[in-house]
Specification:
It is built from two helices and 23 strands. With about 325 residues, the chain is mostly beta strands. The chain has a single domain, classed as Neuraminidase (6 Propeller), CATH 2.120.10. The strands form six sheets. Strands 1-23-22-21 form a four-stranded antiparallel β-sheet, with no helix packed on it. A hairpin with a 4-residue loop joins strand 6 and strand 7. The radius of gyration is 28 Å and the shape is globular. It starts with a helix and ends with a strand.
């Protein structure tokens, strides 16, 4: 009797093992549905902006006859300057060609002072030109690490963002270094600029303050002429109200009311933030650019029209208020 029970138990166990093996085989060899990676962020919701968020519209685009378009600026008369390899082109406020200036090398940033002097960032040094197109002076590099990414001029002072040294350098118009701004100092509680890649912008604010973008932290920092920081704001988010990824925003410009125009790489877009840092509206959404677009330099004219360069297309786009 016991032998019979043992045989029956063994038979049931064999059957159960067979059933398990069958189900395992089915699960192992059947085609699997594509799984969703929970760690991949869906950017679809940020590709297009809601119509209520958009406050500017594109009114014109054109391609300057220049190689390696990198930089843009607008002077006191709303003349437009674009710079690149071997050339600076100047257009009047109606975008009629006004002047071409031949330069040696490639200018990656440009600023025009109130008196019309042209400051060109030539990778590691500054060149000063007059409005007639004559080279006035070549400044010595700060050091061998210098990578100039932005220039701003105010009241006879020239402020240079040096991404290589992670500093804002203050010069007089003779090219003499006056001050290093933002150097890390743990004793004074100065954290310094976090600049992982060469995107480091400076601009003059509505009240004459100097704004520097601590792009690795998605932070805006305000300094007075003495180089003292007195204000800052930070927005880190992939949503419209913030900045994400490495080194954003990559470029800024300032509107007449003190609001900031910003451009980003990675999640490519142009936006406007209030002077407080709060998100205001969208100028151009990511679906208007190629995903690999980067280096969208910005400028603003006296009517608060926004000018942006699209480097890989050698293109200037102009936006006006809706």
């Amino acid at each position: 009797m016991n032998t019979m029970k043992q045989k029956l138990t063994i038979a049931l166990m064999i059957i159960m093992i067979g059933v398990v093996v069958v189900f395992m085989a089915k699960d192992l060899f059947k085609p699997k549905a594509q799984e969703t990676n929970p760690f991949v962020y869906d950017l679809g919701e940020f590709k297009k902006a809601d119509s209520t968020q958009i406050c500017y519209s594109e009114i014109k685009r054109f391609n300057p006859v220049i190689e390696a378009l990198k930089a843009i600026a607008i002077d006191q008369n709303d003349d437009l300057y674009v710079a690149g390899k071997h050339k600076v082109i100047v257009y009047d406020s109606l975008l009629q060609l006004k002047k071409e200036i031949s330069i040696d090398g490639e200018s990656k940033n440009i600023c025009v002072s109130e008196n019309g002097d042209i400051y060109l960032g030539m990778n590691n040094h500054i060149e000063l030109w007059d409005k007639q197109g004559n080279k006035l002076k070549v400044w010595n590099p700060f050091n061998s690490k210098s990578v100039i990414t932005s220039i701003a001029v105010k009241n006879g002072w020239v402020f240079i963002a040096d991404a290589g040294n992670k500093l804002v350098l203050k010069y007089n118009t003779k090219g003499e270094l006056q001050q290093e701004i933002g150097r890390k100092d743990t004793l004074k509680g100065i954290k310094g600029f976090v600049i992982p890649s060469p995107y480091f912008d400076v601009a003059i604010g509505r009240q004459g303050e100097i704004w520097a973008v601590n792009s690795g932290l998605h932070q805006f920092e305000a300094y007075n002429e003495q180089g003292e920081q007195f204000s800052s704001w930070k927005r880190t988010s992939m949503h419209w109200y913030g900045f994400s990824g490495c080194c954003n925003p990559s470029h800024i410009a300032v509107l007449s009311d003190g609001s900031f125009v910003t451009s980003e790489k990675g999640l490519v877009r142009i936006k406007i933030h209030e002077p407080t840092g709060d998100f205001k509206c969208v100028v151009a959404a990511p679906n208007e650019f190629n995903e690999n677009t980067r280096g969208i330099d910005l400028a603003v004219d006296s009517k608060d029209r926004i000018y942006a360069i699209i480097p890989e297309m050698n293109e200037v786009r102009i936006y006006d208020k809706k």
